[in-house]
């Protein structure tokens, strides 16, 4: 998945982050996920995930946005 990063694996639990960008806004979520169910014959899986928004970096001094 674009923007996703796997940080660690502990058994069936995975820790990672994903960046989501919509227009000029970008948000990073960090959390855990696990396989809730796996159907190998149908090649399908259900993943349960919990994440929180990671705080954005502070604005850099001296930068201003321009309105057009």
Distance between the termini: 34 Å
Q: State the domain count.
A: 1
Rg over CA atoms: 17 Å
> Whole-number average pLDDT?
86
Low-confidence runs of at least 5 consecutive residues: none
The secondary-structure class comes to mainly beta
Q: Which term fits the overall shape?
A: elongated
Helix count from the secondary structure assignment: 0
Strand content: over 45%
Strand order in space, largest sheet: 1-2-3-4
Q: Please count the beta strands (DSSP E, at least 2 residues each).
A: 4
Order of helices and strands: EEEE
Largest sheet: 4 strands, antiparallel
Instruction: Assign a percent range to the helix content.
Output: under 10%
Task: Please render the helix and strand layout as text.
Elements: E1 4-10, E2 13-22, E3 25-39, E4 44-54
Folded structure, characterized:
- This protein has a four-stranded antiparallel sheet with strand order 1-2-3-4, with no helix packed on it.
- Helices cover 0% and strands 63% of the residues.
- It has no helices and four strands.
- By secondary structure, the protein is mainly β.
- The chain is elongated, with a radius of gyration of 17 Å.
- Strand 1 (4-10) and strand 2 form a beta hairpin.
- It has strands at residues 4-10, 13-22, 25-39, 44-54.
- It has one domain (4-52).
């Amino acid at each position: 998945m674009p923007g996703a990063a796997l940080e660690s694996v502990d058994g069936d639990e995975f820790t990672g982050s994903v960046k989501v960008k919509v227009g000029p806004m970008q948000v990073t979520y960090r959390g855990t996920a696990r396989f809730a169910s796996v159907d190998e014959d149908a090649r399908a899986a259900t993943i349960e995930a919990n994440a929180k928004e990671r705080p954005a970096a502070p604005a850099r001094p001296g930068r201003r946005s321009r309105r057009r």
